[in-house]
Every structure is written in C-alpha cells, then in structure tokens.
Design brief:
Two copies of one chain form a homodimer. The first copy, chain A, is α/β, with parallel strands linked by helices and 180 residues long. In chain A, 50% of the residues lie in helices and 21% in strands. A five-stranded mixed sheet of chain A has the order 3-2-1-4-5, with helices on both faces. Chain A has one domain: Nucleotidyltransferase, domain 5 (2-Layer Sandwich). The termini of chain A are far apart. Chain A binds chain B through residues 11-12, 38-46, 49, 69-70, 72-87, 89-90, 92-94, 99, 162-166, 169-170, 173, and chain B through 11-12, 38-46, 49, 69-70, 72-87, 89-90, 92-94, 99, 162-166, 169-170, 173.
Chain lengths: 180, 180
C-alpha cells in the first residue's frame, strides 16, 4: 500500500489530492483546493504552509509529488510560482517526506498516454482511473494526475524523480533556451 | 530601540544582518551568511528555514527587511530566488514578525544617497554607518543595507513597505514591460 500527496501549487489556489494504491486498486482518499484568500504574500504563504502541514500530519503520505517548476513561462509567473513551490517543498522537507517532481508532459503521458493531452482529457482520465463520482475541478485533477504519475512510475519500477539541484536546473534551462 | 533583521536571499548563499538602533546609535549586533551547501532543493530550503527560524527565535527582531523580488531578471533566476524568498517570508510569517520590502534603488538611495550606487559604495557606506571594524562581505553588506533602509524610513516617519499583493505585482510587472 502506498499513499501519495499530489500538490499543484498556484499563487491563488493550490490543489491537492491524496491518492492511495493497494495492489491494483487506486483510490482518492481526500482532495481539495486551498484558496489562499486575500492579504499580502507573507500571510498567504503562511496560510498555505499551515494547511499543507496539517494535511501531511493527518495523512502521513509516503511521498509528495509536484510539477517540476522548470516549465514556468516568464519571470513574473516563475517568481510567484517559486514562492508557493518553496513553501510546498519546505512543508514536505520539515516533515521528512520525500518529494518527487514530474514534468507536465510526463504527467499527461502517464495518465492519458499522450504528452500533449488537453486539460479536459486529463480530467476525464483521472475520473475514470480513480474512479470518482463526479469530475474533479482543474486544480484538483492536476494534483490527482501528479499522484497517479508517481504511482505509475513506481508500478513500472522506475525510480521516482528527485528534485533537481540548482546546477542541473541551470543546465536544463540553457539547453532549452538553445533549442529555441 | 528598534531591531531589524535584513535578509538577502539567494539560491546558494543567504546573507543576514541584525541591526539595532537606539536613539541615533546604529549597531550591527550580528551578521552572517547561510551557505546552503549541496543536496536537492528541498534539503536546501529546509536548512535555510531552520537557520532563519533559529535567528528569529534568538533575536526576536521587530521587523524583517527583504529586497522586493520584482526586480529579478529572467524566468530561471526568478524561480530559484522565489523558492528561497518564499521560505524567508514564511519564516517571518510563522513567527508573526512583520515583513517590509524595498527595491534595490531605494536601498542604495537610503544608504549611499544615489539609486545607482555600486556594490563597493554600498559596502563602504554600510561599514561607516554601523560602524564596522572591517568591510563586510557582499551578501552581508546587502542585508545590512536593507536593515538600514528600513530604519532610515522609520526615522523619516515614512510607513514601512508592506509586501505587494500578487495583483499589484502583476500590474507593476506589466507597467515595467510596457516601458521597455
């Protein structure tokens, strides 16, 4: 049995999903959206941390799965995303829960079978795989897909993706820029 | 008497300085550099948080002063900086210490008197103002300058700068992009 907490951090809403696998059975134990409300960035991040810490304490997942950050477009979105993502990694780190990260393409490939799948296709497949009574909201579906991607890799006995070191991130970024 | 913790977060090294003002007397009580060493991003951020939390607990500053993040260039540097900065804001938020943020130009203006001052000029003036026996390292000098900028504003009875909300940040970013 394995429990994974998928987290899709955002500047305004962070989706999360706790997915459990026992044998070939998949089940979403709990999912939701943390709306960080109003207030300055410090207040938002503090609220996000407290909510995540509560989830990690209550459900003790074996792993946290997040999207690799390296796909953000533009300095502004990267910056805002970086703040929320830093808090997610920290919440896991302080509780000693390992973090695995996956590129959007990998997640879509694992769930839909196509790296270029649409949001709707991801929502459809997530609902079938788990299975859910009703379609999840987009942030929740993304968090579920991240957890499913991690479990899928575990089933194929692929090693989980550890977060990249800043130096590796820089090399990837340069390679991506060179391809443009 | 007022104590301010200036923090200059970076992906590899974070400088900090605890500056105290009593009357017209300025004094750097403590300063240093947190080298986050090797390991993945989660381990680095966890170490950064623990060190900052220890500083906040030990010295109980009245305020944390950081550079406003909106000046990062490029998606990659913004992203890495965002992670570290998120952890700094969170550490202050969890301890209930207010955060003030200042643009690099404001900091240089407050310390050197010129918004376009060089790193060396900042280091020189920080050493004179505090006064220090020897020149501080660049990361420490930046943290000291941030604390001095905050105290300078307080002396002029200007309100401290609260961190901007994401929506304000977006508007500023668009204005900046339009000016290019």
């Amino acid at each position: 049995m394995q429990t994974v907490l998928g987290i899709d951090p955002g500047s305004l809403v962070t989706g999360y999903a706790l997915v459990r696998q026992s044998g070939s059975q998949l089940e979403c134990r709990h999912s939701g959206r943390l709306a960080l409300g109003s207030g300055d960035l410090t207040a938002r991040l503090t609220r996000l941390f407290r909510e995540l810490d509560r989830l990690l304490e209550a459900h003790a997942p074996g792993c946290v799965a997040v999207e690799s950050a390296f796909h953000a477009r533009g300095a502004r979105s990267a910056l805002v995303l970086g703040h929320a993502r830093g808090v997610v990694l920290l919440a896991a780190g302080l509780r000693g829960v390992p973090v695995a990260e996956y590129a959007p393409r990998e997640v879509k490939m694992a769930v839909v079978g196509r790296g270029g799948a649409t949001k709707e296709q991801v929502q459809f497949m997530v609902r079938r795989l788990l299975p859910l009574a009703r379609a999840p909201r987009a942030d929740e579906a993304d968090a579920m897909a991240l957890a499913l991607c991690h479990l899928h890799r575990a089933r194929l006995r692929l090693p989980p993706r550890a977060p990249r070191k800043p130096a590796q991130l820089a090399a990837l970024w340069r390679a991506k820029a060179a391809r443009r």
